[in-house]
């Protein structure tokens, strides 16, 4: 296991979770001391099976736990060197954190054009909005082609592109994507992940991506964390994770649909013994 803390200084880290715990409904401990880091300008994956705590971890960063009666009960969430636990979700967006929720949430009755405009910060000038839309359409030419259709009639892949495009309108410094591959054909996953990787390289955007599709995610990230039952059980470079025999057997072995043998995997838990 490589220690990322030794690889980068605090100024190089955009997001750091330090031993956080998250409780829902005052009693249910969903996250049990998770620590992870996203170095500036890098892409990091948080991998794990259903219910492992991936979405909860992202919500702890974006501040979306409160509507679900959840809260960070211990530890700290640091963004660009600043503790953000007490900030409202909107204040976190203003700092540059953008969370694309699972399920491609877009305004279905609006066109992609209108969806992008609606996502722009209120203070953004008309010219800046137009410039941002052009930039986003440059990355997602399919969206440009569909810009005047109702978003509800777009394909799943196009809606996912639109959801990411809406996030980019906020000009984030950290983009958090929750299961962007969910329900999409492999060629579309490859297309969308390739575009995200291009944005990361060209714009230096830091990305934290939550995925069950370990195979696809490990192709584009530099590092990955594996979460199980609210705890990080492994973190390493993408290369090392791909070459790890446990990861291969239980997370990559099923092709596109990973985590097919989770029961067996849980029985072994080699890395915990
Ligand atoms: P999935 O891939 O299914 O989205 P996940 O890894 O994102 O799974 P979470 O959704 O973060 O997992 O859930 C982690 C744990 O917290 C689970 O035990 C889940 O039942 C619980 N949990 C999630 N949301 C809530 C909530 N709003 N209230 C109570 N418990 C919750």
How would you concisely characterize the structure shown here?
By secondary structure, this protein is an alpha/beta fold. Helices cover 39% and strands 25% of the residues.
Topology:
Blueprint: H1 4-7, E1 13-24, E2 28-39, E3 43-47, H2 54-62, E4 70-79, E5 82-83, H3 89-95, E6 97-100, H4 112-119, H5 126-139, H6 141-145, H7 156-169, E7 174-178, H8 186-203, E8 206-211, H9 214-220, E9 223-228, E10 231-237, H10 238-243, H11 245-252, H12 262-268
Parallel strand pairs: 3-8, 3-9, 6-7, 7-8
Antiparallel strand pairs: 1-2, 1-4, 4-5, 9-10
The protein binds adenosine-5'-triphosphate (ATP).
Adenosine-5'-triphosphate binds next to strand 2 and helix 2.
General description of the model:
- With 273 residues, the protein is an alpha/beta fold.
- It has a domain at 101-171.
- The protein is 39% helix and 25% strand.
- The chain has helices spanning 4-7, 54-62, 89-95, 112-119, 126-139, 141-145, 156-169, 186-203, 214-220, 238-243, 245-252, 262-268, and strands spanning 13-24, 28-39, 43-47, 70-79, 82-83, 97-100, 174-178, 206-211, 223-228, 231-237.
- It has a 6-stranded mixed sheet with strand order 6-7-8-3-9-10, with helices on both faces. A 4-stranded antiparallel sheet has the order 2-1-4-5, with helices on one face.
- Strand 1 and strand 2 form a beta hairpin.
- The longest helix is centred in the last third of the chain and has 18 residues, at 186-203.
- The chain is globular, with a radius of gyration of 18 Å.
- The two termini are 15 Å apart.
- Mean pLDDT is 89; it is low at 1-6 and 254-258.
- Residues 24-25, 28, 30, 48, 50-56, 68, 70, 212 line the site of adenosine-5'-triphosphate.
């Amino acid at each position: 296991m490589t220690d990322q803390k030794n690889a980068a200084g605090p100024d190089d880290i955009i997001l750091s979770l330090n031993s956080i715990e998250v409780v829902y409904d005052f009693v249910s401990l969903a996250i049990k001391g998770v620590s992870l880091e996203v170095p500036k300008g890098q892409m990091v994956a948080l991998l794990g099976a259903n219910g492992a705590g991936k979405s909860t971890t992202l919500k702890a960063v974006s501040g979306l736990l409160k509507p679900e009666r959840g809260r960070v009960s211990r530890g700290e969430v640091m963004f660009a060197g600043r503790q953000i636990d007490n900030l409202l979700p909107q204040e976190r967006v203003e700092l540059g954190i953008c969370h694309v929720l699972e399920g491609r949430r877009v305004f279905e009755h609006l066109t992609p054009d209108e969806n992008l405009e609606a996502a722009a910060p209120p203070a953004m000038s008309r010219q800046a909005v137009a410039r941002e839309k052009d930039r986003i359409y440059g990355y997602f030419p399919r969206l440009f082609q569909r810009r005047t259709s109702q978003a509800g009639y777009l394909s799943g892949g196009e809606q996912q592109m639109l959801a990411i495009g809406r996030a980019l309108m906020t000009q984030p410094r950290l983009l958090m994507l929750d299961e962007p591959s969910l329900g999409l054909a492999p060629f579309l996953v490859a297309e969308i992940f390739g575009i995200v990787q291009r944005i990361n390289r060209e714009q230096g955007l830091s990305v934290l991506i939550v995925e069950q599709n370990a195979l696809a995610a490990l192709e584009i990230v530099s590092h990955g964390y594996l979460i199980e039952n609210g705890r990080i059980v492994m973190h390493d470079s993408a290369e090392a994770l791909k070459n790890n025999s446990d990861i291969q057997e239980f997370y990559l072995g099923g092709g596109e649909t990973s985590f097919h043998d989770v029961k067996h995997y849980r029985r072994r838990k080699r890395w915990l013994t």
